[in-house]
Amino acid sequence: MIERKDRDILIRVTTLPISMNILLRNQLRFMSDYFEVIGVSSYDKKHFTEIENREGIYMHSIEMTRSITPFRDIVAFLRMYCLFRKIKPVIVHSHTPKAGLIAMLAAALSGVPVRLHTLAGLPLMESKGIKRSLLTFCERLTYFCAHRIYPNSRGLFNYVSNMKLCNPDKLKLIGNGSSNGIDTNKFDPQVFVHEASLDRQEIRASLNIPNDVCVFCFVGRLVKDKGIKELIEAFTRLRNDAPKESRLLLIGPFESDHDNIRKYIESAILLNSSIIYAGRFDDIRPYLVASDIFVFPSYREGFPNAVLQAGSMGLPCIVTDIPGSNEIIIDNQNGLIVGVKDSDQLFSAMLKLLIDPTLRENLSRNARSLILNRYQQGSLWAAMLEDYRSLLRTSLSRLS
Predict the structure, then answer these.
(1) Mean pLDDT of 23-41
(2) What is the largest CA-CA distance in the chain?
(3) Residue 110 pLDDT greater than 60, yes or no
(4) Domain carrying residue 104
């Protein structure tokens, strides 16, 4: 049960608790030094327990869906509105599209003084027709109800501005981008090997990967929009044409199989023993340590944590030319950038790094230092806290 505390209340909202658990890790504990922090999302015992234990905050359940479900969305909105009216938060900060729409509308109608939404990817970019029009309307409504929109990449900032989805004065990029920065102490290959008492050779042995083989690694949801089809096409060609042996390591969860991607991947694995699906893991560091090159051919992103994490672990990255990815990766400095949905360019980039170990080592040498210089968590958290305080001061002066 939620009780009104003496301190000002900050509510963070995500559609699913896994988003809060992974994307906002440790940030909520930092903010709880300054506010009474409450998390709101759909219920999941595992993630609720992990968040409450690690972050030291209270989690409140309001069921929300990622898809278009009008009746359930109305119920979620009413519950959110009643919650805000009851506990009177000073700030509501939402993440993910559905949570943003419901939370910002409920916060506006219940009179929350400061309303913020982090934008970390736009599904409408890959949508068409009526669905695109509906998603665009929902985004506009979310931004209209918010006082501040935080695009988590420069590319998203420019896209929203160019599309005129909201008043440009509402847009603000925190730091160099990202929703949470990166814990570079945790994502450090030397620290991991020391703490886990596991070296690269042992991890590879557990996956039946020889030490002298080059390993390409992908981490993310195994869905069409992540470029899985193009990745498998490029790797299959690489295995047939390249003079050196390699492996493709896939890490991540399968989702609804409306595009038959799961069947496609399973078929590819059966036909090509060099493709390894290891599963989904909360800690991906062992698989990054075991790998030589990170590949992330996504169609659209906000600011991909997987690329930040791979770079922090010293891996050169091959990414597509999309917002977020093309900001973390500087072409020919810490990785290579290829066209979206272009398996030919992806093949060429993979082949280039496979046969040129000197280039691979040069990119790897730059990878971690560029992340350290631009995406430290502490700097991003401090900048966000300062914006909270600035907006609260403005709100109080407006009311006085």
Answers:
(1) 96
(2) 72
(3) yes
(4) 9-181+377-399
Question: Considering the domain boundaries, does residue 227 fall inside one?
Answer: yes
286 & 142 share domain: no
Q: How far apart are CA 368 and CA 110, in angstroms?
A: 45
Q: What is the rounded average pLDDT of the residues 68-95?
A: 96
Given a contact cutoff of 8 angstroms between Cβ atoms, the answer to whether 277 and 250 are in contact is yes
- The span from the CA of 369 to the CA of 47, in Å, is 32
Whether residue 356 sits in one domain with residue 273: yes
**What pLDDT does 73 receive?**
96
CATH of the domain at 279: 3.40.50.2000
- Do residues 218 and 153 share a domain? no
Distance (Å, whole) CA 72 – CA 84: 18
Task: Give domain status of residue 4, yes or no.
Answer: no
Model pLDDT, residue 195 = 87
User: 302 and 370, same structural domain?
Assistant: yes
| pLDDT tens digits, one per residue of 344-365 | 999 999 999 999 999 999 999 9
Residue 3 lies in a domain: no
Pairing assessment for the beta strands 114-119 and 91-95 based on DSSP bridges:
parallel
Q: What is the pLDDT of residues 197-248, one digit of tens each?
A: 888 999 999 999 999 999 999 999 888 899 999 999 999 999 989 888 999 9
What is the bridge-based pairing of β-strands 148-151 and 214-219? unpaired
| Whether pLDDT at 283 is above 60 | yes
Nearest residue to 35 (alpha-carbon basis) of 17, 12, 52, 51: 12
Looking at the 3D structure of the chain, how many domains does it have? 2
Same domain, 150 and 242: no
Alpha carbons 250 and 228: distance in angstroms, whole number: 9
